[in-house]
Amino acid sequence: MGFKEGFLWGGATAANQYEGGWNEGGKGLSAADMMSNGTHTTPRQITRTLEEGLYYPNHKASDFYHRYKEDIALMAEMGFKTFRMSIAWTRIFPKGNETEPNEEGLKFYDNVFDELHKYGIEPLVTISHYEMPFYLTENYDSWVSREVIDMFVRYCEVIFNRYKDKVTYWLTFNEINCGTMPMGNYLSLGILNEGTRDFTKQIDIPQLRFQALHHQFIASAKAVQLGHSINPEFKIGCMIAYMQNYPYTCHPQDVLKCQKLKEMGNFYCGDVQVRGEYPYFAKRYWEENDIHVKMEPGDEEILKNGTVDFYSFSYYMSNCVSHDPNLEGTAGNLMGGVKNPYLESSDWGWQIDPDGLRYTLNELYARYQIPLMVVENGLGAFDKVESDGSIHDEYRIDYLRKHIRCMEEAVNDGVDLIGYTPWGCIDLVSASTGEMGKRYGFVYVDSDDLGNGTFDRSRKDSFYWYKKVIESNGKDL
Ligand code: BG6
Fold first, then answer.
1. What is the number of structural domains in the chain?
2. Residue 200's closest CA among 358, 312, 333?
3. Residues of the chain with pLDDT under 70
4. For ligand 1, what atom is nearest to the CA of residue 348?
5. Which Pfam families match (predicted)?
6. Domain with 327 in it: what CATH number?
7. Residue 214 half-sphere exposure, CB side, CA atoms within 13 Å?
8. CB of 380 closer than 6 angstroms to any ligand 1 atom
9. Are 219 and 172 in contact (CB under 8 A)?
């Protein structure tokens, strides 16, 4: 028992948080390029033009653009079997609506994929990871406009054809279910409303949000069909931010509330992408929230014919749900909840729950019965560099070790788990806060929250530990 042979051990990143080179090689501005830095307590700001005096951390990020060879060599040293990365849409189509791609951008990813294959590392590519071309935000209201579907499909066609012999594993949209929450307005749907610059508090119009999400579903389904027609070997997955929630008590109202939250938060998108149709509970939710999803003739068929080959998700924490509004709250990546008295939290208030991962894997496999992949997991923490340059990140090892143990339990339960790519394997910019100081990596990047530093790389203790884990196929923890 234990992890199967050929299990895809690796690490995960996203172009906007890791790549840098924001205005090099013909790249256009993306949604993430317009976000200033923030902190734990101060929200990031979205600006319509780049403003002097503000710092935009995604511009340089971790500078993978210039250091990909060095970084990939480090991944190879750890024994990575796969590397999750995203393609920046704006590197291929700078505005998003062009008809001809940018050759320099395409060449960059050719180089990256070739470098990965040199070491036998399989790329796992997210096609859209919070990287909406800003031009489309400004001129089309992003995914609210149905026209954007064709632009996205053109982008997919170009990258599928170009990389058909270099990439097998694809994910269409990162954490697509972010769009079921107000938080997703700008981050995943590219909808920018007037009235606030706080990216977490965009004015929410559920009608627009759910219409935009429908367009993403259609775009994803079309991409899946197109991908399979270009290379039948392609494995194309969905990607969901899995927010595990527990009823705070056995009070039936807690249980029901929790069920309803999970339906819309976790299952609404996965059901469309895996089963090819909206779930039964969608109708009531739409009615009660005055949402009228406009569908065109043929949409149902597109969804039916564009179901994914595997289900991938991020898992960081769990939360509790209560019908009592007076209970103490806790933070979360997309959504907070009620504090669980049995769990500890990270420095950013995310509750640590390895058993919840086993529970989640079983829950998902029971529902969908297709291969699963954990494509994000990890502990964002402050790291201390000792005077000799070493970094003793025992807390990170402890977090990952416990989660891997629980994944193995799920595999022994019978779940078909095919890979694990912990988040931010090399330090990168935090999506929620824009900080560099919230680190997830096995490799340290010498840069602070304002981009000061050499950007040199160094191995943390977790680097050596993860190497052993991979070498032993998850046995030596
Ligand atoms: C996921 C995103 O929600 O969580 C990543 O897909 C993000 O882009 C990760 O970085 C961790 O969140 P944060 O806010 O700590 O960067």
1. 1
2. 333
3. 332-334
4. 15
5. Glyco_hydro_1
6. 3.20.20.80
7. 21
8. yes
9. yes
The pLDDT value recorded for residue 333 is 66
CB neighbourhood size of 224 (10 A):
25
Nearest ligand 1 atom to alpha carbon 178: 3
The pLDDT of residue 185: 95
Q: How remote is the C-alpha of 274 from its chain's centroid?
A: 18
2 found inside a domain? no
The position carrying tokens 């938080």 is 183
Residue 196 structural domain? 8-471
Q: What angle do CA 287, 292, 190 make, to 5 degrees?
A: 120
- Encode pLDDT of 55-94 as tens digits: 999 999 999 999 999 999 999 999 999 999 999 999 999 9
Tell me how far the alpha carbon of residue 428 lies from the centroid of ligand 1, in angstroms: 10
Q: What is the pLDDT of residues 305-363, one digit of tens each?
A: 999 999 999 999 999 999 988 887 777 666 778 999 999 999 888 999 999 999 999 99
Active site residue 296: no
Candidates 19, 263, 376, 409; catalytic one: 376
**Interval between CA 333 and ligand 1 midpoint (Å):** 7
Whole-number pLDDT of residue 107? 98
- How many angstroms is it from 184 CA to the middle of ligand 1? 13
- With the most atoms of ligand 1 within 8 angstroms of its CB, the residue from 333, 396, 433 to mutate is 333
Residue 184 CB less than 6 A away from ligand 1: no
Q: Does residue 3 form part of some domain? A: no
Instruction: Tell me which amino acid residue 462 is.
Output: S
Q: How far is CA 221 from the centre of its chain?
A: 18
- The residues near 455 (Cβ < 8 Å, ≥ 6 apart) are 60, 62, 63, 67, 445, 446, 447
175 lines ligand 1 (CB under 6 A): yes
| pLDDT reported for residue 202 | 87
Q: CA-CA distance, 214 to 144, in Å (whole number)?
A: 9
The torsion region of residue 56 among left (phi > 0), alpha (psi -120 to 50) and beta comes to beta
Residue 5 annotated among the catalytic residues of the structure = no
Indicate the pTM of the whole model: 0.97
Q: Does ligand 1 lie within 6 Å of residue 241's CB atom?
A: yes
Q: Whose CA is nearest to atom 15 of ligand 1?
A: 430
Whether ligand 1 lies within 6 angstroms of the CB of 333 is answered as yes
pLDDT of residue 366: 98
- Which of 115, 122, 175, 408 is the catalytic position? 175
| 151 belongs to a structural domain | yes
